[in-house]
Specification:
Largest sheet: 7 strands, parallel
Order of helices and strands: EHEEHEHHEHEEHEEEHEEHEHH
Bound molecules: uridine-diphosphate-N-acetylglucosamine
Number of helices: 10
Number of strands: 13
CATH topology of one domain: Rossmann fold
CATH architecture of one domain: 3-Layer(aba) Sandwich
CATH class of one domain: Alpha Beta
Strand order of the largest sheet: 3-2-1-4-5-6-11
Helix content: 25-40%
Shape: globular
Structural class: alpha/beta
Strand content: 15-25%
Length: 318
């Protein structure tokens, strides 16, 4: 279905964007990717840049005229690029808002202007905020508790408004804690990459709080699968949870990671809980299963095994 499609991927040099680009190219699509290289890395595009069907534009989604220009011939936009860190959004709420909200409005405006068939938006489970009612279904109240979650919810609302007012085909995918190859080891990255980095440097794993927080860690290939299905299926104006559907506590994740790397000698240190963190996150994925035929292929253990083997082959935590 994606063969010869002209696709724009925002945040293409990032962790999720680059994995998505590789798969789209494998399926025969033509991909233009934009990235401001804030979080992204050129290393992530090694595969993509080998073929002639990929073009990288170094630029920012806050730049409307640039977006308008590069999306002239585009059929599908995967809007993946974002300000992604919850703690960093507390330090820089204005930047988070400018990228995640104004950047998203730019995408929607160019999609309208250039008659783009469909826009698929990478949203986040953080729009739900804290709730005792689990698993999370798409129709539950959304009460984000961080500037990041708030910005993603605003992005979603703009997607929905453009769908309702202009009939633009939009799909919102709410990701649940994505992990896997190319996730960066940086203080503002996801916990799995941070902990693997610490294991490599023989440092203790740090858990914020008592470690009973849980997350529905989702392997990046399953997130890519969700995006491809959203692009192919005749569905629009909908929101889908994209998760593994099997949560794990931070304590258990730490133990699993130490077991898989054979590093039970390393310590686990608990510090204060992190402000803005939700306690539990667990996706009900039945809507994506029913309407998109989305079936996750990985659980945390199989995903971690594949991720660790990728790291040992690539020796790469870019
Ligand atoms: C993550 C993503 C966010 C995404 C959301 C839902 C990142 C940086 N954030 O947010 O973009 O929208 O999932 O898909 O990828 N923790 C520790 N020790 C550490 C680091 C984290 O205990 O060294 C804990 C945190 O307190 C939290 C959990 O691990 O309880 C997950 O944190 P993190 O990986 O930063 O992800 P989210 O904040 O859930």
């Amino acid at each position: 279905m994606l063969k010869d499609k002209r696709i724009l991927i925002t945040g293409v040099a990032g962790f999720i964007g680059s994995n998505l680009a590789d798969r789209c190219l494998e399926l025969g699509a033509n991909v233009i990717g934009i990235d401001n290289m804030f979080n992204g890395s050129i290393h992530n595009l090694k595969n993509a840049q080998q073929g002639k069907d990929f073009q990288l534009v170094k630029g920012d989604i806050r730049d409307y005229s640039l977006l308008l220009e590069i999306s002239k011939e585009i059929e599908i936009i995967y809007h993946v690029g974002a300000f992604t860190s919850v703690p960093q959004s507390i330090i820089m709420p204005e930047t988070c808002n400018a990228v995640n909200v104004n950047g998203t409005i730019n995408i929607l405006n160019v999609a309208r202007k250039n008659d783009i068939e469909k826009v698929i938006f990478s949203s986040s489970s953080s729009v739900y905020g804290d709730t005792n009612k689990l698993p999370l279904t798409e129709d539950m109240p959304r009460n984000p508790i961080s500037p990041y979650g708030t910005s993603k919810l605003a992005g979603e609302s703009y997607m929905q408004s453009f769908h309702h007012i202009y009939g633009l085909k939009t799909i919102i995918l709410r990701y649940f804690n994505v992990f896997g190859p190319r996730q960066k080891d940086s203080p503002y990255s996801g916990v799995t990459a941070i902990w693997i980095g610490r294991i490599q440097r023989n440092e203790p794993l740090v858990i914020f709080g008592n470690g009973e927080n849980s997350r529905d860690f989702t392997y990046v290939k399953d997130v890519v699968q969700g995006n491809l299905l959203a692009g192919e299926k005749n569905v629009s104006g909908e929101i889908f949870n994209i998760g593994a559907g099997s949560p794990i506590s931070l304590n258990n994740l730490a133990a699993l990671l130490l077991r898989l790397t054979n590093r039970q000698d390393l310590l686990i240190k608990h510090t204060d809980p992190r402000p803005g963190d939700i306690i539990h996150s667990y996706a009900d994925i039945s809507k994506a299963k029913n309407q998109l035929d989305f079936i996750p292929q990985y659980d945390q253990k199989s995903g971690l095994k594949e991720y660790l083997s990728w790291i040992s082959k690539n020796n790469d935590m870019t």
